[in-house]
Amino acid sequence: MEWQQLIYFKEVAEREHYLHAAKALSISQPALSRSIGKLEDQLGVPLFEKRGRGIVRSVYGDAFYVHAVKILGEMEQAEKQIQKMKDPHYGEITLGFMRSQGLQHIPHVMKNFKESYPSVQFSLNQGSTEELINQLKEGKLDLCICNMDQGEEGLAWQQLWSDQLYVYVTDAHPLALKQQLTLEEIEKEPFLLISPGFSARVMFEQIVEKYGLKPKVAFESEDIMTILGFVAAGQGVALLPAFENLQVQHVRSIPLREPTQRKIGIAVREGSVRSSACDQFINHLLSYSKSLQE
Question: In terms of DSSP bridges, do strands 155-170 and 251-255 run parallel, antiparallel, or are they unpaired?
């Protein structure tokens, strides 16, 4: 069954006249009759019956007409949806990002993007880099913003920015007045860690292995604010990225002397077909990233 046959059938069914339908469709009457005859042969039933000098729909034609109208209507809506998706000013973007980025760049990027593209809708997901990459590979995300050091095959990456880990201590801690700290100075402190799988935890584990540390883990949590709450209460120290716009009472962040930089980038599935809105958002992210370096 061809798509055009449904269009021809609908026209004949509504006009109940081959000649009038042929004129409306800008085809010859014999060509229209052949198309309807072929459709009837495929279905194995007559769709029309003669009545006097004209035709009317048969009981089969009545039943088929209902479905043909629905199918053609759905196709029209599908075409409109595709045209809308081709327009970068419309569409929906499913974005995943690390929790730490939700406290820094992502809100600013989205605010600026929505000012230029107010009709674009976002579906947002937070998680660890490991979780986000799995969701991306499963097709649940259009793109994700996470740690490039945890990249996998089948993904295409573009770097956005870099950040590093800081030591977070209560302002009453003896080390709080230091301008910089070494791993040796904090090695014997109780550590408050982000849960396994998160980018900051992966970095912490890499540091432990690289420098042969034996840290004492006092507490683990998936929530950054919970960890900082425990830091403020003097229950330990934390190694977390910098949060420029986040102020927590009685907590101070101090840079580490040892290099702990990580690269944050955009990941998409290689060969994936994305909406124009999604590609426009990626370009916006890259422009924002470039502005940070200027």
Answer: antiparallel
SS3 (DSSP) at 259: coil
The tokens of 45 are what? Answer: 């039933």
What tokens were used for 178? 């230091």
Q: What per-residue confidence (pLDDT) applies to 130?
A: 87
Q: How many residues in the chain?
A: 294
Q: Whole-angstrom Cα distance, residue 47 to residue 39?
A: 9
CB neighbours (10 Å) of residue 198?
24
Q: What is the CATH number of domain 162-262?
A: 3.40.190.290
Give 212-261 as a DSSP string.
T---EEEEEES-HHHHHHHHHTTS-BEEEE--TT---TTEEEEEBSS--E
Q: What is the Cβ-side half-sphere exposure of residue 248, based on CA atoms within 13 angstroms? A: 21
- Residue partners of 218: CB distance under 8 A and separation at least 6: 190, 191, 192, 235, 236
Classify burial at 31, counting beta carbons within 10 Å of its beta carbon; exposed 0-12, middle 13-18, buried 19 or more: exposed
* Cβ atoms of residues 212 and 239 within 8 Å: no
Q: What is the CATH number of domain 92-160+264-293?
A: 3.40.190.10
3-86: CATH topology is: Arc Repressor Mutant, subunit A (1.10.10)
Dist CA 5 CA 24 (whole Å)? 15
Percent of the chain with pLDDT over 90: 65
Beta pairing, strands 216-221 & 48-51 = unpaired
Helix axes 276-293, 105-116, angle to 10 degrees: 120
* pTM, entire model: 0.66
| 243, β-bridge pairs | none
Residue type, 69: V
Report the distance separating Cα 237 and Cα 191, nearest Å: 5
Q: Can you tell me which residue has the tokens 């009317």?
A: 56
First to last CA, the chain: 59
Q: What is the pLDDT of residues 208-265, one digit of tens each?
A: 888 888 899 999 999 989 999 999 999 999 999 888 767 789 999 999 998 888 889 9
